[in-house]
Amino acid sequence: MRYIEAIRLVNFRNCVDTSVTLSPGLNIVFGENAQGKTNLLEGLAFAASGSSPRTSNDSEVVRWGEEFARVEMRVSLGSGGERRVSVGYAPGQKKRLSVDGSPTGSLAEYAAGAAGIRVITFFPDDIRIVKGAPSDRREFLDALLSTLKPSYSRAASEYAKAVQQRNQLLRRIRDGLSSRKTLSTWDRKVVQLGRTLLKERSEAFPALAEHFTRSLRALYGPEKAAVRYSYSATPEEYAQALREAHEADIERGSTSVGPHRDDVEVLLGGVNLTTYGSQGQQRLATLGLKLAAREFVREIAGEDPILLFDDVMSELDESRRRYLSEYFLGSTQVVVSTTNLNYFEEGMIERSRVVRLCGGKASEVTREDLSC
Asked: What angle do CA 41, 331, 19 make, to 5 degrees?
């Protein structure tokens, strides 16, 4: 069983120098608003994957007025084994990734389990996965597959660059600065990389969809839930569709066909929740996707990923809180933040490690503290 033993955050968001010890099972981090709970969960994900799940701009994690941020984490690998990892970042410099004191290779390799664990995160803003644009749902899918395969992460990065290069060429052709003859070269490159992404997505999707259906049934009820991959062009039609779109693509100056234009439909009772779902349904569907991702990672990697869930209880009713609490207790390790310990039953708190955060400082809460 692998789990996070401890973390230290230096100049990370509002944390000057914060150390927290964690236990297997359920860890409850509580405190008033704006005390650093969300930042702690973000820091745990940053140490585990090398990236923040809240921003693509690493400069945002550096404490205001400081020159760098660093997170250090100790991971139990079971049977007495241990791994120490650290991720450091200073604006304008390359990110420093270290495992047991040695620099690691690429970020893609680090994110695919080099820390010894994988994490699944839930933040309130994640509702955009269901509610937001197709790019939000593709980002969710790409991040999930990248954590399992560094080759997928590399292909996704190369594909994005190839599409960008093709778009530049399209605009040059439109403006009379380049010949159409070179377009076929970029078509072949884009199709080759795009098919790699489509193959990985299509292989993963049936299992992910099945886990989502089960997760949402447990959270919402018997109404049929589903996710459906929506192609802009199937792998078989991809090359021809790209050729047929030449004129329109040149006119727009952008590539209109390929995995970067695909979407994932999230359905409940056959209704698309992105368009017609209530805020509550969209939030539950987002949570269902996260639980499905956890089951998918466990199935493929053979290890239970760590769950880092921020303020997940606050908008759930009592029965769903009880279900989620039991789900957490059956997990290898969960770190969940809250402003209200009353969301957890007394017996559950007794089986958990409780950490109070105040002004970025952490302190463990004992049973005696809670009884006062």
From this structure: 30
pLDDT one-digit tens code per residue, 50-96: 999 999 999 999 999 999 999 999 999 988 799 999 999 999 999 99
Other beta carbons within 10 Å of 371: 7
Which residues, 6 or more positions from 177, have their beta carbon under 8 angstroms from its beta carbon? none
**Paired tokens of 57:** 């701009």
The full DSSP string for 297-323 is HHHHHSSPPEEEEES-STTS-HHHHHH
- In the block, tokens 């120098």 appear at 17
Across residues 103-129, what is the average pLDDT? Answer: 92
Question: What is the C-alpha to C-alpha distance for residues 26 and 50, in angstroms, rounded to an integer?
Answer: 23
Tell which residue, 333, 305, 289, has the closest CA to residue 49: 305
Q: What is the pLDDT of residue 10?
A: 97
Strands (DSSP E) found in 100-215:
102-103, 119-122
3-state secondary structure of 365: strand
**Signed CA dihedral, 216, 220, 226, 232: sign only:** negative
- In this predicted structure, the answer to whether residue 371 has a pLDDT above a threshold of 60 is no
**Neighbour count for residue 228 (Cβ, 10 Å):** 12
Q: How confident is the model at residue 105 (pLDDT cuts 50, 70, 90)?
A: confident
The tally of CA atoms less than 13 A away on the side-chain side of residue 315 is 14
pLDDT for res 370: 64
For range 359-372, the mean pLDDT? 74
CB atoms closer than 10 angstroms to residue 322:
15
Alpha carbons 321 and 315: distance in angstroms, whole number: 9
Cβ 273 vs Cβ 224: under 8 Å: no
Band (203; pLDDT cuts 50, 70, 90): very high
Give 64's DSSP letter: T
